[in-house]
Amino acid sequence: MAPPPASILKALAEIPSSTLLDVLDGKGYTNVQMRGVRSLVPGQKLVGRAVTMRFVPSRPDLRARVIGGTESAEYRAMELCGPGDVLVMDAMRMGWPSSAGDIKLWRLKQRGAAGVVTDGGLRDLATLKTYGIGLFAARETNATMPSHMLPWDTQAAVQCGGVLVMPGDYITADDGGCVVVPGQLIEEAIAKAREYDALEAAVKARLAGEDVSPGKYYPFNDAARGLLR
Question: Could you give the CA distance from residue 224 to residue 194 in angstroms, rounded to a whole number?
Fold first, then answer.
């Protein structure tokens, strides 16, 4: 796949995830922040285009068919990842089994991907921290994957942390959480987020000068918007 536009990645890296969350909420997208998915490395920022894969509950008759080999869904998904891509792994919100660990995510590092997001766990965190990729998951865990879930599908609509993620959506994540921006809205969301940040700065400056309650301007009203005219 062609890499995502550098201009979009740069903008996402500069805009707080919370601002994009507010912008999307204003457009009626109220379920775009993953629940139970957190940064495993405090202070990291992860942005990129979603490459998706999903797990299904484990069953003995499927295990031999889908575990191992280059055609396994997890490895096919990793091979689709490149610079600017984020591997989003739907682990059915089963936070205790590992979605991936040292050897598997070494390949993601080799591919130059931005990072991984999963509502499952990640193993070998001490080693993964040295890879320089974003690590967002339910928790660190030692539990292995095949006894609990099996890799099944790649580049399909998935859920992660209770949020729909489509291939080509964008991820912006930090210590405050992991937000999904629908791919078709990305440019509009970035433009509105920049406007939102400018409005917030103007309101704070006016509040400092007037010494009044934030309620005069916030939530943003016509008086607040008038400050940018």
Answer: 15
User: Is this structure's pTM higher than 0.85?
Assistant: yes
Asked whether residue 1 is assigned to any structural domain, the reply reads no
At residue 43's C-alpha, the angle toward residues 179 and 91, to 5°, is 45
Cα–Cα dist 96/223, whole Å: 49
- Closest CA relative to residue 3, chosen from 161, 170, 129, 229: 170
pLDDT digits (tens, 9 = 90+) for 101-136: 999 999 999 999 999 999 999 999 999 999 999 999
171, 179 contact by CB (below 8 A): yes
- The residue-averaged pLDDT of 36-61 equals 97
Bridge pairing between strands 85-90 and 163-165:
unpaired
Q: How many CB atoms lie within 10 A of CB 206?
A: 15
**Residue 143's CATH number:** 3.50.30.40
- Tokens 């405050």 locate to 176
Tell me the residue range of the domain where 62 lies: 6-182
Residue 137 shares a structural domain with residue 42: yes
Distance CA(210)–CA(218), nearest Å, equals 14
CB 48 within 8 A of CB 114: yes
How far is the C-alpha of 166 from the C-alpha of 135, rounded, in Å? 20
CA–CA dist 62, 76 (Å, integer): 18
Cα angle 166-65-154, degrees, rounded to a multiple of 5: 10
Task: Give CA–CA dist 193/181, Å, rounded.
Answer: 12
State how far the alpha carbon of 136 is from the alpha carbons of 32, 133, 222, in Å: 15, 10, 38
